[in-house]
Design goal:
heterodimer; A: 228 residues; mainly alpha; 87% helix; B: 238 residues; alpha/beta; Rossmann fold; six-stranded mixed β-sheet; four-stranded antiparallel β-sheet; 10 strands
Chain lengths: 228, 238
């Protein structure tokens, strides 16, 4: 039993190591996500003339739209790498529970998403002259990204097996992650506007509950999703 | 667990994709150490059959046992005893040859991995290129490394799905040498192919898959020199 769980965690670690090592070399996924995120921020910056008083209200929306779209690019690319040379079959042939593959891919997707977010935040702060280094906001970004990646990895694994994978993922993903995006925007807005904790807590709770539910559902469904 | 009498046992296997039936009550047995070539035209269901043996696809009906373990119920036990090579290399282009093997070695929990990686790279003749990225390899080199990946955990059963696809003559000859080497170590091998000339000297038994069943089966000793084509045509016609 102990040996099995060690093998399980080693497999998760191996997948994360493999994804990070490959990305460190190619920089395909991160550069695409980053360029896209920067473009979205720039377009919003030119498109909306913001008065300083309005910035705190609109910032959470702009940030989460940026994260969600850039995240979709990353999820698509991350699974396309597995599919292109048949590597997904290589993973599925390994004698480990298939949920280990899910957690490995989800953790590396989360790492990529957090790296992009860490770069986007100071750039946004400079462009919009808004201080985003708020511990509450950082916690919200972490929780929102966990939920996004939890469900995104599952749906990307499903979409990658179809011919229309690039189009299919956002169509499948955005309706499902709507509760997470809504809770993340409301919580981020609450922290940025220094709202009382009583108004933030319900949204923060929704975020945590959805993270747990989506991770549990993805853990249970992954085997049938990747099965032919 | 004792070594099973048949390393692969398939009974009344059927596979449907929607309304399309690909395999129709197929029976198949392979003894330990045998090298079986499954021949058949394109679309005969060879790849589907091999994917079921590899636990990558579920049978619609029928019983499948590999190394004594039932599929899909005991899939993890089967996978640890299985090495699979397809016409795709299942390798990551942005990792080196050594890193690819290290990754798969960790997934299979291979003991003494550094030593094993060196042995495998030696076996497939890629020791000198161990630190090169796989995307810089030729198709033939990638296929050799794919065989290295498949034998890394020292499996009892090897499945090859059209491994010669896309290789030039020299690369095919080199791959044949490697296949003989891998099979010569007492492993049970099942290989699909539609290239009779290529498998004629490799396999110890030839099975023809046609219309979703094994239409004919013959050991190499039962075939005269250059009679494989006649046997194949008769099986398809019958």
């Amino acid at each position: 039993m102990e040996r099995e769980s060690t093998a399980y965690f080693k497999a998760i670690g191996a997948i994360v190591w493999k994804d990070l090592a490959a990305e460190l070399r190619s920089r395909e996924l991160l550069s695409a996500m980053l360029v896209f995120a920067m473009l979205v921020i720039l377009i919003f910056n030119f498109a909306i003339e913001l008065q300083p008083s309005l910035r705190a209200t609109i910032t959470p929306g702009v940030l989460w739209v940026t994260f969600a779209f850039a995240g979709t690019l990353g999820l698509n690319r991350s699974m396309a790498i597995e599919k292109d040379r048949g590597c997904l079959d290589g993973l599925l042939l390994a004698p480990v529970d298939r949920s280990a593959i899910y957690f490995g891919k989800a953790l590396s997707n989360l790492a990529f998403m957090l790296i992009v977010e860490l770069i986007v935040l100071p750039v946004y702060s400079l462009l919009y002259n808004t201080n985003l280094f708020n511990p509450g906001l950082l916690l919200t970004i972490l929780l929102g990204s966990i939920g996004y990646v939890a469900v995104g990895t599952l749906l990307a694994s499903m979409a990658v097996q179809t011919r229309t994978r690039d189009v299919l993922l956002p169509i499948l993903l955005f309706p499902v992650i709507l509760p997470i995006l809504m809770a993340a925007v409301k919580t981020s807005g609450g922290f940025l506007q220094s709202a009382p904790m009583e108004t933030i807590w319900p949204w923060l709770n929704i975020l945590i509950v959805y993270d747990v539910i989506f991770t549990a559902v993805a853990f249970m469904l992954y085997d049938s999703v990747v099965e032919e | 667990m004792d070594r099973p009498i048949a390393m692969i046992e398939v009974h009344k296997l059927a596979k449907r994709f929607g309304l399309k039936t690909v395999l129709r009550g197929l029976d198949f047995q392979v003894a330990p150490g045998e090298f079986v070539a499954i021949l058949g035209p394109n679309g005969a269901g060879k790849t589907t059959f091999l994917r079921i043996l590899a636990s990558l696809s579920r049978p619609t009906f029928g019983e499948v046992r590999v190394a004594g373990y039932q599929l899909p119920k005991q899939a993890a036990a089967v996978r640890s005893r299985l090495g699979v090579v397809t016409h795709q290399p299942l390798l990551y282009g942005d990792l080196t040859a050594e890193e690819n093997l290290r990754f798969y070695g960790r997934m299979y929990a291979v003991p003494d991995l550094d030593c094993r990686i060196s042995d495998v790279l030696e076996l497939v003749g890629l020791s000198a290129r161990r630190r090169d990225l796989v995307r810089t390899f030729s198709r033939g080199m990638q296929q050799r490394l794919a065989i290295g990946r498949a034998v890394l955990h020292d499996p009892e059963v090897m499945l090859f799905d059209e491994p010669h696809t896309g290789l030039d003559q020299d690369a095919c000859d080199m791959l044949d040498g490697l296949l003989r080497n891998v099979a010569g170590r007492g492993r049970t091998v099942v290989m699909t192919s539609h290239d009779l000339a290529r498998v004629e000297d490799l396999a110890t038994r030839f099975d023809v898959l046609s219309r979703g069943v094994i239409a004919a089966s013959k050991p190499r000793s039962g075939l005269g020199k250059r009679n494989l084509l006649d046997f194949y045509r008769k099986a398809l016609a019958g």
